[in-house]
Amino acid sequence: MPAESATVYRAGGGGTARRLPPLLRALRRFPNPRLTGLGGGLFCVVAMLVLGFLDGVLFGGSVAVYGVLFLLVSGLAAGWVRKADLVAAPVSVPIAYALGALFVADSGSDLSTHLANLVTMLATSAGWLYGGTLVAGLVVTVRKVRLMARKAAQQRRTGPHGPGAGAGQEPPKAPRPRRA
Asked: If you write DSSP's letter for every residue of 35-57 in order, what string do you get?
């Protein structure tokens, strides 16, 4: 008699992953954390501080490199924030950009020169700042629209008052409290 072997079956259509394009399959392997609003802000700040420092050391403070990295961090932060905290992502990314720019701006001989260079750098690279904020806003908007569409589809399937409610019937009213 042949020996029996255990087979593992996956629920949910194992063949769908094979039909996806390679790029989407690669994107599904990325982590999918769900950060709170504060966690998303901290992620942005820490990432931009580290990337700003590395840009200053490796590329001599290239605003273009820093801007492209900011666009990526903005998209990640907006994609990783929880549904309940979607509005926090477009708010926290400009703050992170300004803090990371401390390492990208030309450092002067004293603090006032460094701050003047920082303000000048922020003014001249406003396009990157607006672009990253726009990326975060667009990602958050798409996520919110998809969330609202899913909720509407679920309500159409179950009805406005939940499963089992008759069409056109009002939900049962709560009993009135008795007076003593």
From this structure: B-HHHHHHHHHHHHHHHHHHHHH
Q: What's the pLDDT score for residue 57?
A: 92
HEC states along 93-154? Answer: HHHHHHHHHHHHCCCCCCHHHHHHHHHHHHHHCHHHHHHHHHHHHHHHHHHHHHHHHHHHHH
- pLDDT less than 50: residues of the chain: 8-12, 17
Amino acid at 8: V
How far, in Å, CA of 35 to CA of 108, rounded?
37
- Give me the pLDDT at residue 39, please: 92
Residue pair 108/117 in contact by the 8 Å Cβ criterion = yes
CB 81 within 8 A of CB 40: yes
Residue where the block lists tokens 């029996």: 4
Q: Is the pTM of this model over 0.85?
A: no
Distance CA(36)–CA(34), nearest Å, equals 7
Q: Which of 117, 101, 99 is nearest to 109 (CA)?
A: 117
Token duo for residue 59: 């590329």
Residue 9 is predicted with a pLDDT of: 45
Please, is 82 exposed, middle or buried when counting C-beta atoms within 10 Å of its C-beta (0-12, 13-18, 19+)?
middle
